[in-house]
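Box 4.2: Ligand-aware structure prediction
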Amino acid sequence: MALIECRQLTRTYRRGNEEITPLRDLDLDIESGGFVALMGPSGSGKTTLLNLLAGIDRPTAGTLSVAGKPVHNLPRRALANWRSAHVGYIFQLYNLIPVLTAYENVELPLLLQSLSRSERHDRVATALEAVGIEDRHEHYPRQLSGGQEQRVAIARAIVTEPTILLADEPTGDLDRQSATSVMELLAQLNSEQGRTIVMVTHDPRTTEWADTVLHLEKGRLVEQAVGSERP
Amino acid sequence: MRLLRVIPTVLRQILRSPIRSGLTIVGIAVAMFLFVVVEAMREGVHTATQVQAGDTTLVVYRENRFCPFSSRLPQFYGDRIEQLDGVTDVVPMQIHVSNCRASLDVVTFRGVPRDDFNTAVTGETQIIGGTVDHWQSRGDAAIVGEALAARRGLRVGDRFSAAGLTVYVAGILNTDHPQDRNIAWVHLPFLQEAARRGGTGALVTQFNVLVDDPKQLEAIASDIDALFTHDEHPTATRPERAFVGRAARDIVDLVDFAGVLAWGALAAVFALIANAIVLAVRDRVRDHAVLQTLGFTGPLIGWMVMLEGVIIGLVGGLLGAAAALTTVRVGNFSLTMEGLNMEIAGGWTAPLLGVAAALTLGFLAGVVPAIRLARRDIAASFRAV
Ligand SMILES: Nc1ncnc2c1ncn2[C@@H]1O[C@H](COP(=O)(O)OP(=O)(O)OP(=O)(O)O)[C@@H](O)[C@H]1O
Ligand SMILES: [Mg+2]
């Protein structure tokens, strides 16, 4: 059984009288330990799919289960708790809280768990070390470079040891060098810690770290000749 | 437990936007200062003018007269009043004030017979400087109420002048009776002498009558007035506090009206907190969506927002209340009119009321934004910013 199972997954939005269905009858299996890159033109439904996998949006129809547990029909509060335990989310624009230091940002998701201060400290320190910025605990986001901010954001996503790690264009706002080192970090988390990663990307270069590349077009997965998108 | 663990995060959010939080808090403190001072004034006026169950003092005044200069009663009335049933003591008094109008610094002299001092002062009293003997031994001696002494910086042995009289301070009186705290007690003949220079004769301004049963207060008042209805100088007798309330009607009305200011101050506090929260919530649409993505529930984020309002309200309220309390206590203000005093209450009631109000308003101001926030859709929030 796959770790993530999507069956007939559909998401429809209503805008006035108009209905938009960015995702239609999607079937998808992702194995535990996989590193999936999701590509496709703008508006093809990549973020919509990622949000459904993350449990921050709910499908209009179809089912989604993660580690054998149905997620699509969880009520709001249960869904929030499920996110807290199973999902790490990495954004294109890092989305760190500006008034909190790097340390405090990474500590945030742990506040939801019954851990003591020192247990939290150990886990935050470990996560910051894993992303290579153990010397920036007291820095505010505005005092960090884009690459460093994204590393802090990754530390925040992995500090709870989630079942799946989701990333929406994690290198979209970074220069080549920072992008490469962020991708190396993700690959390392995938290979050394066995984290399952689903990453949306526009940059074909970043797909070389992934083991599967999926193409989405108008809300459906399309077959793509192997390597056709690679440079 | 989650509610407690996020408190430091809320505090950081407040402390790390110091200008915004500071401005809001200062605004709240100013409004609360106003609220507490007005409430203290209302409380003081209330204490001075509302008859209380245990009251036993009546004031006999000339009918239809309100100012001590125009109330003149023959001193022999005292003997007739003393013979009424239920009357324990009658003290004739001459009142002499430096200023008859409503004012914050008026000196009121009360003349009492040499041996009547102890019965003239009512309630819990204590001479905290000088002695009554000393007072009795000097014709121009005065025993000065503590509040008046504090306001004028008087000590035993000092001389001070007001209203054309110069007296020697022979003692300072500590008492819980608001009228007595603001008065200089002098010898009746001394005041009468001063008044005679103005040409009045053996007249007094009023009699203070002590009765033995508080329940009989009104009945005895009617008896006294009945005694003199057909006299040349008819009287109007009232419980002391009611007398104060009537004589100082202007102040009472004014202070009642000031109650509107108190409500206005509360409205300002509410508006300030609500504004701060609405802005904060609008500013943090993305932050809140991030928190929700991390697994924070809508209600938890709502609670954080409400807590922010409560903390800001509490801090502003405490600052304003502390400033108001200090001002009222250091200033020892009393409102005086027609020689009667209404002290601005320096107790804890008004400040505590203020802090509680600020706290409640902080809470209320956060409720609606918090509920709306708790219902917000995460994916839509991310798209909105
Ligand atoms: N909450 C929403 N309300 C209305 N329409 C929406 C909503 N979310 C997504 N859409 C629409 O769904 C379609 C797919 O959006 P989505 O963000 O998934 O695309 P994407 O593949 O991530 O694009 P990009 O590469 O530009 O990020 C778009 O047309 C978008 O306008
Ligand atoms: Mg997208």
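In the box above, the bound molecule is magnesium ion. Residues 249-283 of chain B form the longest helix (35 residues).
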